[in-house]
Specification:
This protein has about 400 residues and is α+β, with helices and mostly antiparallel strands. The chain is built from ten helices and ten strands. Helix content is about 45%, strand content about 15%. It has a four-stranded mixed beta sheet, covered by helices on one side.
């Protein structure tokens, strides 16, 4: 198994590293400290990154994108997250949905949605699944309970569907131009059999954005409330088939799932290690640099060890996905591992900074707050661990 990088992969990695150093890191802490969650967003960095290809990285080359493989995607996500985790996620959120349009949607849908996405540096994508009373049960829904999962209704009227309900914590919620929205089109059967996936542009009649949620971390990343009040969506905007929403991605090999979040966590750990090393090499205590104290050396060693272990797990998982190894469960397990690692590494970094670690002008506590988001990303750790049942098949 060879994890050495080819020239194209190394080129994207270096491009992302330079962009993070020159354009993301200088604004990261300042954007994080803006009180109003709507105002933390910065279109300028999105436009600059888009022009370099970070927004359209995963779109197939046949459609004008860059067609990056999973290893490249993981490398870019980690490098961007090293500058700011939430900005990295804003870009990578677009990859899975733009690739889905290219691989699973009709030619008409590609012309109407993929072409504008490629042409517009401010065209962001999001997925609306979670609702006020439907969260983790969307990920592993019980087969025998039609009431589990999302409740937002979609009722057909001629060539349109009327959508009613609310979605919470939606990715790119206040800044997206197109959302993939999960609905219940048959409330009498379970979620897998009675849901339909719609593409809903942000100018759809009856659709509006509500509040932007105020999070302790990932403050740049816009998680918004989407409100549908008799929203009229054309039948032509359905992805796949009516009542086939859960299966809409069945033939799509572009879904990186939890690998996205694990690669992002790796970037945060890299930033924490870098910050801790700089502190240890410059702070004097007890008459010598703190890196000469054994207690600090042990903490730095643990940070390095955990980060490099996570790097190996992430790259192996990305390689497996590039090899189309569908029977691997590492895509889920690596997310749980990254959740544990990012918590430990960022806390060790804050600890090494001593009293300065809790000060908001340093950045160590920001990494800890960003890391807290991992405890409830794409469900919690218990939900994700249920994937282990695949081993019994």
């Amino acid at each position: 198994m060879d994890f050495s990088l080819n020239d194209e992969q190394r080129g994207w990695q270096m491009k992302a590293r330079q962009f993070a150093e020159e354009h993301i890191r200088p604004i990261s802490l300042a954007r994080d400290q803006i009180p109003d969650p709507r105002e933390t967003f910065d279109w300028d960095v999105i436009r600059k990154g888009s022009k370099l290809g970070f927004r359209t990285l995963a779109v197939p080359k046949a459609w004008g994108g860059h067609g990056a493989d999973f290893v490249t995607q993981a490398l870019v996500m980690a490098e961007l997250a090293r500058g700011d985790s939430a900005i990295s996620k804003t870009f990578s959120q677009c990859w899975k949905w733009s690739h889905l349009i290219a691989s699973a949607c009709t030619e008409d849908q590609k012309r109407r949605f993929l072409e504008p996405f490629l042409a517009d540096d401010t065209y962001l994508l999001g997925k609306a699944g979670t609702e006020p009373e439907a969260g983790s049960d969307n990920r592993v829904p019980p087969d025998d309970d039609p009431t589990a999962g999302w409740k937002m209704s979609a009722v057909r009227r001629g060539d349109e569907w009327i959508l009613n309900g609310r979605k919470w914590y939606t990715a790119n919620g206040s800044v997206g131009k197109l959302f993939f929205v999960d609905t219940r089109t048959n409330p009498d059967v379970n979620l897998r059999e009675g849901t339909t996936l719609f593409m809903v542009p942000n100018d759809t009649p009856g659709f509006r954005v509500g509040r932007v949620f105020n999070k302790i971390g990932w403050r740049f990343y816009q998680n918004g409330e989407l409100i549908f009040e008799n929203a009229r969506v054309p039948h032509a905007n359905i992805v796949g088939e009516v009542n086939g929403g859960v299966r809409a991605r069945a033939g799509d090999t572009s879904e990186f799932g939890d690998l996205e979040l694990s690669a992002n966590a790796l970037g945060v750990c890299d930033a924490a290690v870098e910050m801790a090393m700089a502190r240890a090499r410059s702070r004097r205590q007890g008459g010598k640099l703190i890196i000469e104290h054994q207690a600090i050396q042990l903490k730095l060693s643990e940070m390095h060890m955990l980060t490099e272990a996570l790097r190996s797990f992430v790259m192996r998982t990305a390689w497996e996905k590039d090899q189309a190894m569908r029977n691997s469960i590492n895509n889920v397990l690596v997310m749980n591992y990254s959740t544990d690692v990012i918590q430990r590494v960022t806390h060790l970094n804050m600890d090494i900074h001593g009293a300065a670690g809790v000060m908001m002008d340093i950045g160590a506590e920001k990494l800890v707050r960003d890391a807290c988001i991992w405890t409830h990303l794409a469900g919690d750790a218990v939900q994700r661990m249920k994937v282990i049942k695949r081993l019994a098949r």
